[in-house]
Amino acid sequence: MPYYAVARGRKPGIYATWDECKSQVNKFLGARYKKFSTENEAQNFIKEHSFLATQINSTEAESAKSIEEGINKVDFITDKDGYVNVFTDGACSSNGYKNARAGIGVWFQDHHPLNVSQPVEGRPTNNMAEIQAVTVAARQAKKAGIKKLRINTDSKFLILCITEWMSKWKSRGWLTVGNKPVINKVELLEMEKELEPLIVAWNHVNGHAGIHGNEMADKLAREGCMQYKSQNKQG
Fold it and tell me: Which ranges constitute the DSSP H helices of the chain?
């Protein structure tokens, strides 16, 4: 009898069937789950990941305090219209293949406490990385009390998604022109929700063109990509 261990999902626990497990982890951002042949192994998997989650939460709490203290000491790059500039980027190696890895980069200023370099949560694709980078940038901006944010990205796909395509996809019930489901619907809606309280201006920059902010965001994204660990999906 198989044992499906869900360490991170809608309701963590051990499930007897893949369908039960799937209902807990499907489209759940950052889900952690695995199939085992014994109940003991499944329990150990959940305990191990619960311990890691506790450690991460503790570290995040300490980081949040450090960030809060550091924000007042570091300037933002603000333009004449009062927009704070942030550069975002996503990186993915072996995009579309089984061994793909992806990461995100968010850059406000050199050595800024709100800069982020981390692996993608969920499917490791280039588009997923670009979307999650903006989602995280919006969260960081709100944490600092920023109201107006100029997002600089080299992803035309991302800008078109938010400024043109999303409204059309919504009107068609989240179907593309070819009548196929929009692949990144969940992540796009999450990004939209995080951006909603902000006044946002989008700016497309050319990648690898010597633009310092873009180069730094790319570096952070590539470092995040190296931290990515594939999830072992069972079914």
Answer: 18-25, 39-71, 126-143, 156-160, 166-171, 185-195, 212-226
Alpha-carbon distance 6 to 43, whole Å?
9
- Identify the band that residue 230 occupies on the pLDDT scale cut at 50, 70 and 90: low
- pLDDT computed for residue 26 by the predictor: 77
| Domains identified in the chain and CATH numbers | 3-54 (3.40.970.10), 84-227 (3.30.420.10)
Q: What is the pTM of this model?
A: 0.68
219, 109, 159, 126 alpha-carbon torsion, rounded to 10°: 20
Helices 185-195 and 126-143 pack at an angle, to 10 degrees, of 20
Classify burial at 55, counting beta carbons within 10 Å of its beta carbon; exposed 0-12, middle 13-18, buried 19 or more: exposed
Task: Check residue 163 and report its DSSP letter.
Answer: I
Express each pLDDT in 190-221 by its tens digit.
999 999 999 999 999 998 888 999 999 999 99
CB atoms within 10 A of CB 208: 9
Judge whether 130 and 148 are in contact, CB under 8 Å.
no
Count other C-beta atoms under 10 Å from residue 226's C-beta: 12
Chain centroid to CA 36: 28
Quote the percentage of the chain above a pLDDT of 90. Answer: 49
Residue 14 bridge partners (DSSP): 5
Which pair of structure tokens corresponds to residue 150? 């100029």
- pLDDT tens digits along 60-76: 455 555 545 555 545 79
